[in-house]
Every structure is written in structure tokens, then in C-alpha cells.
Here is the input.
Amino acid sequence: MIPRVPQNKRLLVGVATAVTFILLYLISAQSGSPKVVYVDKATGTVVSDFKEALVGGSTLVGAPSAPASQPQPPHDEPPIKDSSQEENAALQQIGAKEEVGKQPGDCLIPGERVKATFVSLARNEELYELIKAIRNVEDRFNRKFRYDWVFLNDKPFTQEFKDLTSAIVSGKAMYGEIPKEHWSYPDWIDKDKAAKSRADMKAAGIIYGDSESYRHMCRFESGFFWRHPLLDEYDWYWRVEPGIQVHCDLNYDLFKYMEDNDKVYGFTISIYEFDKTIPTLWKHTKDFIKLHPEYLAKDNFMGFISNDKGETYNLCHFWSNFEVASLKFWRSQAYRDYFEYLDQTGGFFYERWGDAPVHSIAAALFLPKDKIHYFHDVGYNHGVYTQCPLNAEFRYEHRCDCNPNSDFTFRGYSCGKKYYEAMNLEKPKEWVDYQ
Ligand code: GDP
Ligand code: MN
Here is the structure.
């Protein structure tokens, strides 16, 4: 709104301005200097330097303009430069292929992309929890990189699911149905034995103890998601589950970080497994290693998963609802053989083996430990557990929205301390205040 100025004051200022003009005209005529002079339109004072006058937004005397006493709101002035055009031109110069701004406010970080995709296994009923998670990952990371997103389901996705998710994903969104063979009982499973085990586990109060679908899900995430044809064209994936949150800005390409630094498996939270879900997993793992000692990596991460050099499993594992990892690792002969060996024992159905301990044990044994990367900078939440960076400056710079008191890394059932010890790393200095 233009400020209102009282009538008599306007008259006074008008007269003052006219007098100034007449004086200026007389002075310039006398001295022989150019007849064009500049006056600051807001204050009515003479501007001696033409260039400065331009930058300062002063107007040429005589040009149509508002009275000096009525400053205009800034949006009435022509823009000095169009910065959106400049940003586009700059990005083209440094080789960014796409145009800036698919959505208002989006800002592409230029640079090479690696062959990577997000992957979400989900049910149609989880749509609204999932799109919250996707929106969050897009805001914190992917709107700047635009990686693709693969959605997998044991049932056909609804149109609503496809419409809403593809509207939010900034890269390509793809939808795959899981082949029956990857989500059903293999022929060597005794279904009665499996049903009895589910009943027993339910009676024992074990979480998901009586769930058949949970077992198919864990077996699928262990042995099959990476075989889905939609993932064939990729080397890397980032697993995202419904309802998860990313708490801090991620301003670099996590996939490219993995590739450039020769990493294979990246995690955020680590935790102890419920031993009742995996009574024989370690025994079978040891048998497998006896059969295939060649798969055990030199400098492996046994120190993280065992406190007695491999005699027993200490239950530590990477929480697999977040993974940024190499698909090539799961496609390797070592992992294929390990999964097949485990699958033949029937433990996914007679017990309730999770994909998290299976992935973690494989990564810890078949990889040199320096191929495992801890994303301590990824603020993350799934269910009751949170990772929140402890350094206050970091949280400020990355606009984190988590409370450091909720950080799980050095508390209770977390394997965070074990990780730092086994990796021979110094814990962050703040850890003592958050245990
Ligand atoms: P939790 O994290 O161990 O409690 O297990 P979740 O219930 O979160 O399941 C893990 C992942 O598998 C999530 O991405 C789920 O959306 C997905 N999931 C679990 N069960 C099913 C299922 O029966 N069908 C499909 N399509 N996805 C499932
Ligand atoms: Mn989950």
C-alpha cells in the first residue's frame, strides 16, 4: 500500500522540489555542465554520480515517475537482473543436463549421477504412510538429485497408489509385482511344521510370531528384491519404508559417495535382534562358512557381530529398514550361495529370521570392514528409534528437526557403541551426554 500523506505536507514538498529544480537549472546553465541532472526521488537530493544513481535506483529528472515525496513499494521497480535465467545459464555451462525447477522451489544439484534407485516394498494400505516418507526424502535429498523410485508389492498396486506416489517422486517411478515364486512357500517347506512354529511363537509373545506375510516379506527382502527385473539397470539402492523420516538436509549424493569411496553397505541405526526369532541362524551360518571358507573376507567385521571371535552371535545387526547399498553385493556368488543355504534349512518359516540379521551377517563376514559405511550424518526415524546427529552446529547447518535426546546410538539395545569399538573409531565427543 502507498502511504497516505496529508494534503498540506504534499503541497509543501511539491513546492520544495520545484524550487530545487529551478536552482539546479540555473547552476547548470551558468557552469556550462550538461543539462541532465539526477535527483534521488525519495529524498529530493541531487545525485552527482550517474553510475551510483543507477545502482541506487534514482530516477532521471523529467522521466515519468512518482512525486519525490511518495516512495514506491520495491516491487514497482524493474528487477536489476533476472536471477532465475542466470541460474539456468550457469547450470548449462557446468554441464547439468536438465532444466532447473521441475517444481517451484526445486533446485537441482549438478553433477554426475550413478546408477541408483530408491526401492520401497509396500502394501496398498500403506500408501498414506509411504507418501509422507517419500515427500520427506524428496525434501531432504531427492529433489536435488532426482533418482528413480521402484515400488514393489506382492499384489497389484492400485491406481491411486501409482498416481499419488508418481506425483511426488522427482525421478522416474516404476511399479513391479513380485513373482509368486518369490513370495510363497518353497516345495521343501513342511507347512504343518511352519504353522506349529507360528502358533508356538505367538504363545511365546514374539513380535510378528504368528505372521505368515511377515515371513514372506523377510525372505523376499533377503533373497529376492535385488533379483526383480526393475532393479536390473541399477547398481545401488536406498530402501525406504512407509512412515520413516529423514531429519536433516542431505546436500550431497549418498549413492555417489558410496561409489566414489568404494563402499558397499551403508546403514544408520544398529540394534540387537530378539534371539527367539533366530535360534539356529548362527549355527547354520557357521556351517556355511565351514563349507565355503573362501567367502570369509580378510579384515571382515566379525568384531561387530561376535564377542568371541565367531563362536556365538552377539545379535548386533544393521537395521535394514534404511539401507543405501550395492545391488552387486547381493548378486555376488557368495551372497547367493549363503541365501540359498539358509533358505534350504527352512529357518525363514520354522523360525522367523529377519532380513536385517541376514543382510548384516553377510556384510560383516563377506566384506572387508572398510566397505561398510555408517551414515552418522543421516538424521533418521523408523518407529520408536531415531538417529539424531549429536553435534549442535551440524544440526543447525543441516536444519535438522530431531531432538538429540531422542538419539538411540549410545543407548539401550543399540549396537552403536559396539560399532565404534569394532571399527576402532572414536565416539563423537557429545556421546557421554546422550547415553
Ligand atoms: P517392521 O519394520 O519389521 O516392523 O516391518 P514392516 O511391517 O514395516 O515391513 C517391512 C517392509 O515390508 C515395509 O516396507 C512394509 O511396507 C513391507 N511389507 C510388510 N509386509 C508386507 C506385505 O505383506 N506385502 C507388501 N507388499 N509389503 C509388505
Ligand atoms: Mn518397518
About this structure: The pocket of manganese (II) ion (ligand 2) is lined by residues 241, 321, 382 (CB under 6 Å). The longest strand covers residues 116-121. The domain at 114-433 is CATH 3.90.550.10 (Spore Coat Polysaccharide Biosynthesis Protein SpsA; Chain A).
